[in-house]
Design goal:
By secondary structure, the protein is of the alpha+beta class. Helices cover 35% and strands 13% of the residues.
Length: 75
């Protein structure tokens, strides 16, 4: 589990869903499957901004650059 600072911004599930461009169900599933760190204070669940940034960075897939010089010909 990662350590987060007390001065960090904590996001609601709705805010995380908006940032990711998904419904609230997706971040809730990430929490339920323990695929993302979160903070639980009573009945409230919050996700630290740094944890969300790390999740996005870890799941970002870079594009493969193809050579333009290749000419494809029909067989």
């Amino acid at each position: 589990m990662s350590l987060v600072s007390a001065s960090e911004r904590y996001l609601t599930v709705a805010e995380v869903a908006e940032i990711l461009g998904t419904t609230e169900r997706f971040p809730r599933r990430l929490i339920a499957e323990r695929r993302i760190d979160f903070v639980k204070a009573g009945k409230y669940v919050r996700i630290p901004q740094s944890v969300l940034d790390a999740y996005i960075a870890a799941n970002t897939v870079t594009a493969i650059r193809r050579s333009v010089n290749r000419i494809r010909r029909a067989a």
